[in-house]
Amino acid sequence: MANTASGANGSTGAYSLLPSVANNMPPAIPEARPGMTEDEIALYDRQIRLWGMRAQEKIRSANVLLVTVRGLGNEIAKNLVLAGIGSLTIADHNNVTEEDLGSQFLLATPSAGDVVPTDATPEQRQAADRAAAAAVVGTNRAAAVSQQLSAMNPRVKIVAEQRDVSTQPASYFEQFSLVIVTDRNPAVLNYINTATRLQNRPFYAASSYGFYGFIFADLIEHDFMITRTRGNIASKPGEKETRTRTVIDVKVEEEGAADIKETITKREVYSTWYLASDSSPLPESIRTVPRRLRKVTPLLPCLRALWTFQENHPGPEGHRVPSSDNATDRAEFIRLVNEQQEFLGTPPVAADKIREFLQSVESMREISPVATVLGGQLAQDVINTIGHTQQPIQNLLVFDGTTMQSSVYAMHPEIHLGTAQLATAPNTTAPESASEATGGAGGSMNATADRIMAAGIASAAALQAGNAADAAAAVTAVPATTIADTAMPPPPLPQASQ
């Protein structure tokens, strides 16, 4: 199944879920490279033709952490394992419930294989299904899915992490190349994103709410390369294409070629989850063009209202959602939607759309096609990020399952982006590094993280109040010597195994 993703202007285009082979795929088999066996090259041949041997080697050496494996997590894990990443750690401290069995194919039951005879009656198969379900229900969710993932691709190392990683120190995330968090509340996303920033690790967040969902990316500063036929206007190093994207390097093939090709290295800079999800306006290219502003999906203010509601109503897991049967909840949620709509400058959200969204979120039912689309989009973007090929999501993707469309918006505050946001805490010095982190989302983090988050909160409040000057003051950069100690360089390119 294919779906579409649209850019900041709301236009849509093709967006593949997993690598596929183009009709004009070259027939030659790639030559073996150090670090990859002939069997691996044969297994991943179609992918190598699509994104190249070098990118596949980077994917092969990647160590990815996936937090929470519900239906959406199942899709992401499947796609990454089949793509051939080096190691996948599945982190989920929850146990399997009966509801999970209806949306998670990785919790496969023995009755689907050779345990039940092919001539078994429907009653016998149902009895086998019930027995298999009884065996898995109540067991740890990460451990339960690990066996099926290992069977999909034995070359990928699968690790089951049964602890709640939001209670782990920031240094825990240093061991991973990239971190993905699904179906967790804003407080957890905020903590883990802060931790990954301190460890200079790319971060993705995603959730599905019935027919709706989102993907968020904070890659800090990410370089990627694209090769294309050179146009009439040549790209130049240092050229700023958008507020977030800059051309870093341009390499042109020999001038005598019939079709002159150019390989362009570009850099995208990002913001943290806290700033992008709560206080960032729409990009200027949208908010200054009425036609584009009218096309902004009403799901954007609805999602931001939901995240604010969850922050206002922490529960046992900080994950309470508004109840459509509770008049107080309804009134608060509608008020939050209207506040976000006014802040973004988008058209008012229709009452029936708010009602549909609220009902979809309240049920929290996972719809397989929605999980498939979101999981495919996120996994493809992760593969592109690890391989440093193609332009990644920048930075919030909103999915509407009723129209099967994805809209991408670059949501950033009017302050410095990228690694500069790591130097927003005055008086931060090198000794207050990520290695000193000792607490999780439920406790106190290290001084550096506390200052970064405090600065983010102050900046967000000022931006919400419409005071850009106060927002900038809240994140005033520290002296250059301190910035050199605290700001992190761009993520290093993964090295292929030798």
UniProtKB/TrEMBL annotation:
It comes from the Eukaryota. InterPro entries: ThiF/MoeB/HesA (IPR045886), ThiF_NAD_FAD-bd (IPR000594), Ubiquitin-activating_enz (IPR035985). Pfam families: ThiF. One of its GO terms (molecular function) is ubiquitin activating enzyme activity. Residues 44-112, 134-409 form the THIF-type NAD/FAD binding fold domain. Keywords: Ligase. Its EC number is 6.2.1.45. This is E1 ubiquitin-activating protein aos1. It comes from Sporothrix bragantina.
